[in-house]
What we know:
single chain; alpha/beta; TIM Barrel; 8-stranded parallel β-barrel; two-stranded antiparallel sheet; 16 helices; 14 strands; 38% helix; globular; disordered N terminus; binds phosphoenolpyruvate; binds cobalt (II) ion
Amino acid sequence: MAVVGWVCVRRVRSAALSASVQPSSLSRAPQEWSPDSWRSRATHDGHPGRLAVAPYTDPDAVVRVEKRLAAMPPLVTSWEIENLKGLIAEAQEGRRFLLWGGDCAETFADCTPEVITSKLKILLQMSLVLVYAGKRPVIRVGRVAGQYAKPRSSAAETRAGPDGAPLSLPSYFGDIVNGAAFEPDARRPDPERMVQAHQHAAMTLNFVRSLLDAGFADIHHPEYWDLGFLRQAGLHDELRQEYQRLTERVTDGLRFMDAMGSGPAHRLAQSVGFFTSHEALNLHYEAAHTRTVPRRAGYYNLSTHLPWLGWRTREAGGPHAEYLRGVRNPVGLKVGAEARIDELLRLIDAINPSNEAGRLVLIARLGAKNVRRALPGLVEVVRRAGRRVLWVCDPMHGNTVTTSAGLKTRSFEDIRAELSEQWQVHRELGSGLGGVHVELTGQDVTECLGGARGLREGDLAANYDTACDPRLNYEQSLELAFVLARLMQGGA
Ligand code: PEP
Ligand code: CO
């Protein structure tokens, strides 16, 4: 991701369109959309989606923070966003594959060089495996530089307080809203945290951009992505050997291409794009980054390249769908096993009324056991309706279980099974799975069960570090890339 230059950004706060905005493209969206139109849908009436906007108690403080944020430089540019949309359009035609991964919840404390580089490294390693196996370019998207908000089904959490009596505090809504510690001060929703989120996202992005600009992602040098612990006997032997063999084959091929001169494949190998994404959940933050730019029509969310609509906030008439239908970014939609076909079509049409290429990514998170029942019907109806989408598999969120010790976990076997089932269904239907969306970290955590090392329930406590859902560790992530590679090469 190159730094393309500064954009001069104007923000139009009124619902009326400014004279410089071309009505031609906006006329596709129903007239009443504005960067503020979601606000009238955001009533706290107990609906979990609406509740998830963020339970602030001081509306004036929220407005003040939004104004300050709106005056700050954006985090991404409309050029990058349009570029990504073009790449997703190509993926919709089967010419690219989307690799999308990162933490369930980023935390401010994890904004460190080690955590950021190891996440980038594992994503680059996975993408190398996928490029090699799939023989098509991979679009890399991180759940990074803004994945600070979490949806909650309940506004409050009750635990035993210091005196043993039950204590109810606001739930933890992610670092952008409040702190995770179960203490009244930490759990108080604080709008100022939105400014901190912007700053942490900016620091993260600055580091990622510098690394990539300096050639960190050049596939001539996969050794840059070695995670220290891979070299120690840490990594499962078979996996390490398999990965080493692959990097040797790739570097061999590249040396051959270098000798032949610099064709397009050679240039592609040197410059690797990387994009950011987060769930568009805290709409106060999203709205403050929603802006017009010179010489382009419409509004862009300049806090991230690829915002997505979470499964809990999917209601077609709800605030989140209302917000997302008006921005020009590509948008992800989570699709759960209980998705109703009519609802999904309504949402697709609300968010992409002009059926624009590259605009919509459907992220199916069904649960391994539900794929056969739920996926074929959804895929068929969307296809028969002629809607342009990219189908991506999130094998994580439909496979979460709680251990007897109360830890949320997922088994590698269920994750593998869901990915493989989704792959087969798309193959049978001729639609083609276009990407994968996973919760992972480059750290050596113990949050998901199984994998090459056979992590068991008793091992989870060793390094269970997530701020929300269990993530694949570096080793399980690489292993999943090889599972996908085998599917791409025709295996089961
Ligand atoms: C997530 O992606 O972290 C998430 C909450 O997913 P979903 O909306 O699919 O439950
Ligand atoms: Co999650």
